[in-house]
Amino acid sequence: MLADRPEAAGFYRSRSHWHETAAPCAPEPPLRGHMRVDVCVLGGGVTGLSTAYHLACASSGTRVALLEAEVAGYGASGRNAGQLLVTFGGGDLGAQVRRHGAEKVGQALTYVNEGIEAMKSVAATEGFDYDFRETGYLKAALRVEGDAEIERYQRIFEQVGHGGHLHYLNPSQVEEELHSPLIGGALYDPRGGQFNPLKLVRGLRAAALRRGVQLFENSPVATIGTDGPRVRVETGQGALEADRLVLATNAYTHLLGGAQALGLTRAQYPLIVRGTITEPLSEADWQAAGWPRRSGVNILSQLFFSFAPTAQGGMLWVGGYNTHAPSDRALMPEVHAPLRSSKVVGTFFPRLAHLKTAQTWGGPISITADWTPHLGVARDPRILYACGCWGHGMAIGFRNGRTLAELALSPDGEASRLWLFARAKRRWPPFLLSSAVARKVIYDRRRGNRRIAAKMTPRLDLDA
């Protein structure tokens, strides 16, 4: 099998920029034969590894196993935008306040920030580096739309108790820093920053192994059985029984054998998104370009973009609604050829117009019908799950890992009273209908985005 061969360590390098930057990591052997543990975790991304790690830390006598279908970090945890933001769910934050109330949304943002702080603490304790640069980040307006959206964003943050973290930069100040003809005013949040998500995953993976977690990679799950006294998980080569099961499979949850019986087939929907990184700039080039904070820039508009300098010197960007809804259940990694010749970076930042694209990649994120991350229990009370991070899963996923570990060890403990866990969750309609709805939304968004782009000076070409 591929996971048993030495060359497997470099096999995933085409999957994202992060697989190019992290050191090779030999996969752990797949599950073979039969074994029994106290808690089994499915999914080797940040949520699953954080769950396994916190389980091992909380109780040294707890037998913990983690099964990953590919290798740790294969999914969204190894191919995201490389920013840590204090944000929550999908869509408009004001709509989240209308759904859940200001107090709960404020608690959710605090919960996300706790995830960022927990990353720093665990990395320091375990002695690994994940290229974290606590630069903060900018939420910026498009010049053509004015500052109304960031003013509304600031009011919402004040309403939920987080307004004290935001600092307003007027358009002239932003122009002085970024030299962009397209960006207006911005809000600076000093929390968060840039990091290497795969280095985080690899560091957490090593820490979990040191603490006694049994990791099985290249171990896709065929079925989940709940008829016996313990939950039974079967792969192509082995079987595992556990008292508790944690599903940390996010965008892949609907593909699990047994997902329908557990009531999870429609808990989330996978949405394909794409990322692009430029060739690296030298330090002199960066100084000439400006960007004194080296903070990520996130556009507050229907025409969303995210730009972030990386530790290797490149500019990583996502956005422009380069996304699509899968029409079937296949979720293979992909690239999007037009992104290779995109002029987006040069149009937003003329001083970076000479940069060439180094790599593009794509894959699914997990979205929910109620625009809110799901953290809950399946139809079988022995099975916990988390999904639907809306492309912001690293911070909340890390924090969810601690919560899931606490719930696995103490189902009626304090973690069970978190509103994110206790709330009623809305499900998607059947897959074909969900796909049709998602494609219609994407089509409408693209039309709207082109109208916005056509008003910009210089004009932003979303197709080149």
Describe the structure.
By secondary structure, the chain is α/β, with parallel strands linked by helices. It has 2 domains: 2-8 and 19-79 and 197-268 and 370-428, 3-Layer(bba) Sandwich (FAD/NAD(P)-binding domain); 137-190 and 269-367 and 429-464, D-Amino Acid Oxidase, Chain A, domain 2. It is built from 12 helices and 18 strands. It has helices spanning 17-21, 46-58, 93-100, 102-126, 148-159, 171-178, 197-210, 283-289, 344-348, 393-409, 419-422, 431-455, and strands at 33-42, 64-67, 83-84, 137-142, 167-169, 183-189, 193-194, 214-216, 221-225, 231-235, 238-247, 269-278, 296-299, 305-309, 315-324, 357-367, 374-377, 383-387. The strands form 3 sheets. Strands 1, 2, 8, 9, 10, 11, 17 and 18 form an 8-stranded mixed sheet that branches. An 8-stranded mixed sheet has the order 5-6-4-13-14-15-12-16, sandwiched between helices. It has a two-stranded antiparallel sheet with strand order 3-7. Strand 13 (296-299) and strand 14 form a beta hairpin. Helix 3 (93-100) packs across helix 4, helix 4 (102-126) crosses helix 7 (197-210) and helix 4 crosses helix 10 (393-409). The longest helix has 25 residues, at 102-126.
